[in-house]
Design brief:
single chain; 617 residues; alpha/beta; Gyrase A, domain 2; Isoleucyl-tRNA Synthetase, Domain 1; 4-stranded antiparallel sheet; 4-stranded parallel sheet; 20 helices; 51% helix
Length: 617
């Protein structure tokens, strides 16, 4: 039952019956819920075009709808529109709004149909697509830190949203495992004596273990090498050479690389699993390496690549984007208006770059999967990079014309000072430290409620708090990481939603134990009677519409808000209605059915956001 569509059809029929065009007619949730449930400003817009008072036009439309209601009572042959009109009350309001209030009978029917629907009333996409999501973006040999949090949080939720809406999805973590950080790490390890056995004469690399190289060692070696490259030009050149050796699969560099990758990926998986993030593929830049030469050849054969200072580049600027600014002197470097620089696809020394491997990755994915859309979720600093990559793919035909390439650019997670979140000493906070802090805080909250020793519950609440706090913001927005605010059991927080689910679990459990009543989706009955029950039904309507809003916006904030509104509506209902004390058995089952439906809708929303529901709190 799509109430909004039914209202829209009734209004269209009424408008056409008056001899008017319905183009531009729309129906939205009311901005004044105390007056009505839905509204339309169509009479305001059309009245202005026709030179007619909008209120008079609105009254004519309402009059036509009321005439249809009369028709139903006087005729056996009535239209579907006339039948549906009785579910709603239409009235005109100054200066020309069409206001609509939903009848209790229609809301009861909506709740029943929603409860029995396998999708809980969430409208499915008409033409399901295959969407390939690329998020996570961890780098091998580098510790996951706070800067890696938003990509898996946002990416996982977007993936689940598309599943909820009926699309097919595939996901890849796309590890950074083929770039300069690998050459830097291996060079530093070699210089510090960790790799001597690999470089001995006649060494059998496959049999040599990295017994002295632990994750802690890698966490020390890469930062040391990264700082050194900025002040030691020779070290940087040697690291470039090591990187090239890895990409050429030259021994022993390639064997060392594979062992470091294996060690890192095992830890990366643990970190993502803590966040409820799961991937179909743990591919990396290295997996696309087999497609790099073919990728470069495509650009060369099509005349799209040119040489520049020993490198191979592709011009991706469009007309008007790369306009030279006249030089004031011969020595002044050339500058451009609105520059879109060329994409470099081959380095001066023949090595691959991020752009090359990203283009090759799209070539590989299209060979294997032919997705309708590929979605990348990274921070907003990579906007130009992906614009270059996408343009290259379209120019070369690597991405078909009908394939959509999307970059979701998210903002920064900041500390209370408004700056990127760091330790007190100014260092980068490790991801597992952030998650550990959240779990510890959640554990303390649970202890205050008399729940001790349930570490898994503490994890679900702590991680849920962080995810809800993140996703409540529009994706492109920077936000402040406020752990106390996020973990509050009151207000617009993840724990508040989880607590509402736990409270309903308690009600349904007591109904089963005390009243011998077990409510399920099959035996639910609904009769919306009170304002509190009405608020719940309307909140479910708005929640279900939020999925489509988020789907179109690639941002989950509308779903977070609608989920909170439903939990808040239930709180009002719970406080004002003695559910289990209701003596009338039929009425008690109706109230319990509403509890069951709210729980199901909240759990679906939480799952979509990547947040665990809980049995107790």
């Amino acid at each position: 039952m799509n109430i909004k569509n039914e209202i829209y059809e009734i209004l269209c029929e009424a408008v056409k019956s008056l001899g008017l065009e319905s183009d531009g007619l729309s129906v939205v949730f009311s901005s004044r819920p105390e007056i009505c449930d839905y509204q339309s400003n169509f009479a305001l817009v059309l009245g202005k075009k026709l030179g007619k008072k909008p209120i008079e036009l609105a009254e004519e439309i309402v009059g036509q709808i009321n005439a249809q209601k009369v028709q139903k009572s006087n005729s056996k042959n009535v239209t579907k529109i006339a039948k549906n009109a009785e579910k709603f009350e239409f009235f005109a309001a100054m200066p020309g709004f069409l206001n609509i209030k939903i009848g209790e009978k229609a809301l009861s029917q909506f709740c029943e149909e929603t409860c029995h629907d396998k999708n809980l009333g969430v409208e499915q996409v008409k033409s399901p697509r295959l969407i390939f999501f690329d998020y996570g973006g961890a780098n091998v040999a580098k510790e996951l830190h706070v800067g890696h949090l938003r990509s898996p949080i946002v990416g996982e939720a977007l993936k689940r949203l598309h599943v909820t809406m009926g699309d097919k999805v595939l996901t890849d973590v796309h590890l950074g495992d083929w770039g300069l950080q690998m050459g830097l790490t291996i060079l530093q390890l070699k210089e510090d004596g960790f790799l001597d056995k690999f470089f001995e004469k006649n060494a059998k690399n496959a049999e040599i273990s990295l017994e002295n190289v632990t994750l802690d060692v890698l966490n020390d070696e890469y930062p040391k090498a990264s700082k050194r490259k900025d002040v030691d030009e020779d070290f940087k050149k040697r690291a470039d050479q090591f990187t090239l050796y890895i990409q050429q699969k030259k021994e022993p560099y390639f064997s060392i690389y594979k062992k470091i990758r294996e060690l890192s990926v095992a830890e990366i998986k643990k970190n993502y699993e803590l966040l409820n993030c799961n991937f179909d593929f743990y591919y990396g830049e290295s997996d696309a390496s087999a497609f790099v030469d073919k990728t470069v050849k495509i650009f060369v054969d099509k005349g799209l690549a040119r040489e520049s200072e020993g490198a191979l580049v592709v011009d991706v600027a469009r007309e008007g984007e790369h306009i030279p600014i006249p030089k004031k002197s011969e020595d002044e470097p050339q500058r451009y208006k609105n520059p879109m620089p060329p994409a470099i696809i081959k380095k001066y020394n023949g090595g691959d770059l991020y752009a090359t491997t990203d283009i090759a990755t799209i070539l590989m994915r299209n060979k294997d999967f032919q997705a309708d859309e590929i979605v990348y979720v990274t921070d907003n600093r990579q906007g130009q990079h992906f614009e270059q990559v996408f343009r290259c793919c379209k120019l070369a035909g690597i991405s078909p014309e009908n394939q959509k390439l999307t970059h979701i650019a998210f903002g920064t997670m900041n500390g209370q000072d408004g700056k990127p979140f760091k330790t007190r000493s100014g260092g980068v906070v490790r991801l597992k430290e952030v998650v550990g802090l959240l779990i510890d805080k959640a554990r303390g909250k649970l202890s205050a409620n008399g729940i001790v020793g349930d570490d898994d519950l503490a994890r679900k609440i702590g991680v849920g708090a962080m995810k809800f706090g993140d996703l409540s913001n529009t994706v492109e927005k920077d936000y402040v990481f406020d752990i106390d605010k996020f973990l509050s059991f009151d207000g617009k927080t993840g724990p508040y939603i989880q607590y509402t689910v736990a409270r309903i679990n308690s009600i349904l459990s007591k109904a089963k134990n005390e009243k011998n009543v077990q409510i399920s989706g099959k035996n639910c009955v609904f009769s919306i009677q009170t304002p509190d029950e009405r608020n719940i039904a309307l909140a479910i309507l708005k929640l279900n519409s939020a999925y489509q809003i988020c789907y179109e916006a690639y941002s989950l904030n509308a779903l977070c808000l609608a989920t909170f509104d439903l939990a808040s509506a239930f709180s009002g209902f719970y406080n004002n209605q003695k559910i289990l004390a209701e003596k009338d058995e039929t009425r008690r089952n109706e109230l319990l059915s509403l509890c069951f439906l709210v729980k199901a809708c909240l759990e679906k929303a939480l799952w979509t956001l990547g947040i665990d529901s809980v049995e107790k709190m």
